[in-house]
Amino acid sequence: MVITYPYKSGLYVNLTNRCPCACVFCLRQYAPSVTGSGSLWLEHEPSEEEVIASLDSRRLNEYDEVVFCGYGEPTERLDVLLAAARHVKGMCPGKKVRINTNGLADLICGEPTAQKLKGLVDTVSISLNSPDPDEYLRLCRPKFGIGSWQAMLDYARSCKGYVPDVVLTIVGSPVTTPEVQAKCRAIADGIGVRLRVRPYENLGSGATPPAAAD
Ligand code: SF4
Predict the structure, then answer these.
(1) Strand pairing of 10-13 and 4-7?
(2) How many Cα atoms are found within 13 Å in the side-chain-facing hemisphere of 36?
(3) pLDDT for 58-90, tens place per residue?
(4) What is the pLDDT of residues 5-25, one digit of tens each?
(5) DSSP 177
(6) What string of DSSP letters covers 60-74?
(7) Do 60 and 66 contact (CB within 8 A), yes or no?
(8) Which of 22, 138, 173, 195 is the most buried (most CB within 10 A)?
(9) Could you say which residues of the chain have pLDDT below 70?
(10) Which of 129, 143, 153, 132 is closest to 25 using CA atoms?
């Protein structure tokens, strides 16, 4: 099964297929893989030892960064994520580590989690998806309900204290209008984090790119 996989200039880590969201645009509904290198559906969730063995089988120097992403929400397995990030930093001290997340880690874990990222994670990329909580609920369908949008923003704010680079992301035109993008930029500015407008990729199904693919 695929635990680590090269994608663009990064080495991606696939920890879980679990996710508290069911985004209407999630790539998982349309394709088994983002890379063509094999299905990202896991036979079982890899143990810490399996993740580390998979990392050890790669030449980390060949990649710009290690990205926890995959076909699920990586903070569903925060303890394994942190152990693997610690291993990467031990093997390759300058290597950048990024998490691509829906930003619901505190709801998933039932406690504040941002401080655990300190010294282990360089970038947290959080899917904002919408400047409006009701639209976010319609698009992402989080199991935690309407409070998820605010929890995601609170998580972004709390990460700022522990992670050098915190990013909110949305999909660009034609999925979002310039007006929506402006509202998202104002939200990011208000929190004091970057906004990244991800390019739209037509998947031939009306789908938009998911956090899991990026
Ligand atoms: S796009 Fe990301 S957050 Fe949404 S359901 Fe898929 S894996 Fe979960």
Answers:
(1) antiparallel
(2) 1
(3) 999 999 999 999 789 999 999 999 999 999 999
(4) 999 899 999 999 999 999 988
(5) -
(6) GGG-SEEEE-SSS-G
(7) yes
(8) 195
(9) 35-37, 201-214
(10) 129
Question: Residue of the nearest CA to atom 6 in ligand 1?
Answer: 26
- pTM metric for this prediction: 0.93
Contact 64, 9 (CB under 8 A): yes
Q: Give phi and psi for 22, each to the nearest 5.
A: -140, 65
Return the ligand 1 atom nearest residue 71 CA. 7
Residue 64 CA to ligand 1 center (angstroms) comes to: 24
Q: C-alpha dihedral over 198, 200, 203, 206, to 10 degrees?
A: 120
Centroid of ligand 1 to alpha carbon of 69 (angstroms): 10
Residue 95 Cα to ligand 1 middle (Å): 26
Residue type, 99: I
Domains of the chain in start order, with CATH, are 4-213 (3.20.20.70)
- For the stretch 50-57, contacts whose Cβ atoms lie closer than 8 Å and that sit 24 or more positions apart, written own/partner, are 50/3, 51/3, 51/4, 51/13, 51/15, 51/80, 51/83, 51/84, 52/83, 52/84, 52/87, 54/3, 54/4, 54/13, 55/4, 55/11, 55/13, 55/84, 55/87, 55/88, 55/91, 56/91, 57/4
